[in-house]
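Practice problem: Dihydrolipoamide acetyltransferase component of pyruvate dehydrogenase complex
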Amino acid sequence: MESGSIASWNLKEGDAFIAGEVFCSVETDKATVDFEAQDDGVVAKILVDAGPDEIQCGQPILVTVEEGEDVSAFSDFKVEDAGGAPAPPAPEPTTTPEAVAPPTPPPAAAAPAPATNTDGRVVASPLAHMLAKELGYNIASVPGSGPGGRIIAADVKEFVPGAESMAPTMAGQAVTPPPATPGAAAAMSAGPPVSGDGYTDFPVSEATTVTAGRLAQAKRNVPHYYLTVDICMDSLLESRKSMNATLSDDKPTLGVYEFLLKAAASSMKAVPSANACWMDSVVRVYDSVDINVVLGQGDSLCTPVIRDCGGKGIASIGDELTKSMESLDPNDEGEMLLPSGEAGTFSVVNVGMFGVKSCAPIIREPQACALALGALENRIVPNDDKDSEEIFKESVVMTATLSCDHRVVDGAVGAQWLAAFKSYVESPTTLLL
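Answer key — structure tokens:
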């Protein structure tokens, strides 16, 4: 839901409540649901009266306190007295796509332990409980900065979780769990397989659980649609052969993938509105083309980003791609040196190496597009050489599929981008312009 109205209040100002007690009934366009308390306390101030007026998600509706003697302090309280207007329903990032990932964890420091009651229950504000549940955090792992170590909403927002703090049901949640930190895959390794009667259970690592949750959310939230095109690779393969012949022996040869990444970045310059993301109230179009490439599989799956791919040459792209692939090899301790899970502005996945002709990739939020590259295969196609006596010829063809977020890239724009990509690949000399 994005908004609703309060059908009725079950409590009034000054009433005490316990965890699980219903504050009020919230009416949406589809149902009426109860708003339950997450902790014990006293209603100090009701900010919104019951009625048909629409209330945006994130707008404060009441003030609660721990002790009854604190109620009088809020008799004339208004939201403005707290130093700001009601929060918008969906705050948008104010920086580049890198801000989607959580901040790098600071050096470990002694943090106050969460306050607990005599029955072992963690003392936290209702909003802190709600935020922790939405973000998939274990509320008991969040250090509290309130009176007596009480956990407040700001503590949850600023908390940087480790593997031990993620809730066990995180993969089933509708929100994106925080991505794993670099090099953390080994620390979050799964346990040994468990055999049963006619089956074997293979435990998944935290990294896999995080990835599953992010993919599930993206598939639910983003209105995907798909465009597919067949591309003749003959000219690109010939150009690659010519360029590799000019390289010295100490230089690595250029692969087909590097040409395709360069073509994708060049296509973004031709159709810049595809290099964008959905920000609820605005569509953000980026100047730099930062491409996430999908590498590895299983627990070693990672998506390193090649920054400013449009401003790099094919050889430079190849060097960065080689470094990322080398990091998939385990080190002397058997740990995978995974690149960081930074967010770019576009994603490319190569399924052709597995002999797959085509696939429809899931878009990585908040990006608007993802491209899947299929296997190169020999096909018999019509001969476009007018001087040839042969009606047909043999040609190397690749199938490319573009997944688009229809909120950002409509069908016409997606088709223009794919046409530009096809043009660059079939005329690779234009990549040098």
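Discussion: The first strand starts at residue 3 and ends at 9. Students who identified this feature from the tokens alone can consider the problem solved.
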